[in-house]
Specification:
Helices cover 37% and strands 15% of the residues. The protein contains 10 helices and 8 strands. Strands 1, 2, 3, 4, 5, 6, 7 and 8 form an 8-stranded mixed beta sheet that branches. Helix 5 crosses helix 6.
């Protein structure tokens, strides 16, 4: 059983909650990632860790891929935990990156899988270009090397950062983003994105629950978030993520109040990535996160037509 993550330092005060479990606390986590996108755990390891934590349910929401879900669903089938098939779509709204989480999706729906296949093809082209630019800049790498180093993963900039650190091109993980491959970095190549509206539509067509992920990370004021919701709700948007690792208590409260005013479901999750985000723990975030199973109960009961 995957009981503890080796990269957590128990002496670090920020990690004080990592040895705790959520057993008996009716807790869930609706936003997690595996190694099939940019997390570090296999689906089986993630489920084992969720069981150790005492979580009642967990949603696997890998970035733009559902490749982990067959294994996850099969592994969780005879265990005391509910596995919720999900995805996190990278979308764009008015030149702003917006992530749309889809929960309880039919991840084998034809139109949905066709979209993901096309998206991965366009990402491959982007990654080839970025590797060429970085190589020209004196940091040699190929896309084939990245895929070999991170097998069965959809290669993201997080993988670039880890590869660059391992090769000695950077001295710490965030340096790759700060100097080279961040949104405004000299070697960043934008990838093809779908619109937020299309993201909502795709999730609805796959029978899922579309959720605006971590709205506080977009650094938009509430008026602008309101405009986003006003555009997406008529298309089928059902919820917004209020409980999130980096949210303060005030931000969570404000997001819950915003959801209530707009007739939106409330979602929540850690955005757990394992080793890639070592201060974020499953179900606990930085230590104070709590997502009640009642949230998922309300979601499942909501009409999806």
């Amino acid at each position: 059983m995957h009981k503890k993550n080796d990269w957590f330092d128990p002496k670090d005060k920020q990690c004080k909650a990592y040895d705790n479990t959520l057993t008996g606390k009716n807790a869930i986590d609706l936003h997690t990632h595996t190694k099939f996108s940019d997390g570090s755990l296999t689906p089986e390891e993630l489920i084992d860790y969720a069981l150790y934590k005492g979580l009642k349910a967990i949603a696997i929401t890998d970035h733009d891929t559902v490749d982990a879900l067959d294994r996850a669903v099969a592994y969780a089938a005879d265990k005391d935990i509910e596995l919720i098939p999900g995805v996190e779509l990278s979308t764009e709204w008015r030149d702003k990156d917006i992530h749309i989480v889809g929960l309880d999706i039919d991840y084998k729906a034809k139109g949905f899988t066709e979209y993901l296949s096309e998206f991965v093809d366009s990402r491959d082209v982007r990654n080839e270009k970025m590797c060429a630019l970085l190589t020209e800049a004196g940091m040699p790498m190929t896309y084939a090397q990245l895929k070999e180093r991170f097998p069965d993963s959809v290669i993201t900039r997080g993988h670039y950062a880890r590869f660059m650190l391992e090769k000695g091109y950077t001295t710490y993980l965030k340096e790759a983003f700060e100097r080279y491959i961040g949104d405004n970095g000299p070697y960043f190549v934008p990838r093809e994105k779908t619109t937020a509206a299309d993201g909502v539509r795709l999730i609805k067509e796959a029978g899922g629950i579309p959720i605006v992920a971590h709205p506080m990370l977009y650094h938009m004021n509430w008026d602008r978030i309101q405009t986003l919701i006003d555009e997406l709700k008529p298309l089928g948007l059902m919820g917004i993520e209020a409980a999130y690792t980096t949210n303060s208590a005030a931000e969570e409260r404000e997001t819950r109040e915003f959801a209530a005013r707009n007739g939106l479901l409330v979602s929540g999750g850690s955005d757990y990535h394992g080793e890639a985000k070592p201060l974020t723990d499953l179900g606990l975030g930085f230590g104070n996160l709590y997502v009640s199973a009642d949230i998922w109960k309300e979601m499942k009961a909501a009409p999806r037509s």
